Each structure stands twice: as structure tokens, then as C-alpha cells.
Amino acid sequence: MKDYKQALKHSVNILAAVLFSAVAFVFTANGLAYKSLPFISNHFMVLISVSAGLLSVLLLAYFILYIFKKQAWYRLILCTLIFLDICGIVFFTICATGLIVKINSIQALRDYIAEFGNWAVFLFIVFCFLQVVILPVPGSITVAAGVALFGPLKCAIYSFIGIVTGSVVAFAIGRWIGYKAVKWIVGKDTLDKWLKNLKGKDYLILSLMFLLPMFPDDVLCFVAGLSSMTWPYFLIMIFVTRIISVFTTAYSFGLIPFTTWWGIIIWVILAGLVVLSFWLVCKYSDKIDTFIKSKLKLKR
Known about the structure:
The structure is a single chain. The chain has helices spanning 2-33, 38-42, 44-67, 71-96, 99-102, 106-114, 120-133, 139-150, 152-186, 188-198, 202-211, 217-226, 231-255, 261-283, 285-296. The protein is mainly α and 300 residues long. α8 (139-150) packs across α13 and α9 crosses α10. The termini are far apart.
């Protein structure tokens, strides 16, 4: 009976990996088949081959690691396949609906949102929310389209509502699902040990990454959920950093153009200041971290 259960368990694990690989390929291939963008149309067979090759390599690696009982590694690959399934489904959806063409063009996205008339504001907020949680949309395109539609002030307010809501949801997903997923991969004791060693050191660095424009804020929300960051700290931090980043971005499109020599010089200076700020904060991270927590009365 024990041997039967073991054989069944192995069969389920192997079939699950094969199924997840197949789902990822089917949705990705069908999304590519729409040939929505010139790049996809010109490199269709290459993209299909790369997708099939990548999934085949992952599946082969899973089999090998499973045979040698490298549990953490083959579980990591299984989680990667599940993530690729989600990406494949999203990619297929935006290709099938034609949204992929619009989200890569400021004018096209603006026209698409404007078509909804009185519902345009609601759609824009929902779009900003989905941009954080699931849609691979560059934030600059969304903001630029919003500024063209509503003006910088209203665009900033609407963006702030959608982005903060999405950030909170992403943090919750990281906190409730991410922990369980990582615990399943590496084991509870190992994960708790990692989090204990990192506790307190992640507050400042993550906060800075949210504030500066060079980091993927959307991904950071999920990472923050997995860190030792508390809910109160996250809510305060996301509120402050999003206000600064969203309003600055919204107004910068109108005040600092990319099409003039002086605009380009200003953007270069701002980029230099961002890099300098990041270096200074990293250098004095311990002192700044202690100061912030003492002000917010957070325990280390």
C-alpha cells in the first residue's frame, strides 16, 4: 500500500510539471499567433522556438532534480512554471483583445480609454490597479495617457487611487501567498531563519526603491509582502512614496519635455541626483533606518 501511494505521488508530481509546461506553451503560442506587434510578426517562428526550448529545458531540469531528490530546486522550477502559466494567460488575453497594441502607445491607450466616455475615469483607475497587480504595462505610458486625457492634477489623483489600491493587494498577495510558496520550496525553518537575519534591514532599502524611479515598484510590492515589513509601515510608506512618485511623474510630463535640449539636460541632472541619493542612503542606511523607526516607534 505504501509503495502504491509513493508511485501515485511521483506520478502526480511528474504529470503536474508536464501539464503546467503545456499550459504555458499553449497560451504563449496562441498569443504569439495573433502577431499583434511588428516584432512578433517578424520573429514569430523564433519566438515560438525560444518558448518551446525554454519550457523544455525547465521540464528536463525538473525531471533530473526530481530523480536526484533535490526538493527545493525542483519545487522552485514547479513554481516558475506556474508563474509562466499566469504570464502566458495574461499575454494571450491582451493579444486576443488587441490591448497589447494600445498599451505600447500613449496615443492608442489614450484613445482607447477616451472611448468609454463617462466611464473613462473608472477605467483609468482600474487600469492603474491592474498595472500593479498583473498587467505588464510601463507606468510612464499610463501616466502620459492620463495627463493627455485629464490633465496632470486629475491624472495624478486617479493614478494614485489605482496604484495604491493595487500596491496594497500586491503586498497582501506576497504576505499571504508568497510566504507559503517560499516555505513550501525551502522549508519553514530555513525561511524563518532567513527572515530573522534580514529583519529590520529591509525597511529602508525597500522604501528607497519605491521612491526612486529606476526600480520596478510593482514587483517590489510582492517582495515587500514577503519581507519582515509590517502592515502599518507598508501603508505609511506606500502612501508617502506613491504621492511623491505619482505627482512628480504626472507634472513632469508637462513641465519637463523630452523634446528640448534644456529638458534633456534637466532629466540627466535628475537622474544623477537619483543615483547620488541612492548611494548616500546605502552608505548611511543604518543611521537612517534607526531614525525612521524611532520616529514611527517601530520595533526592530
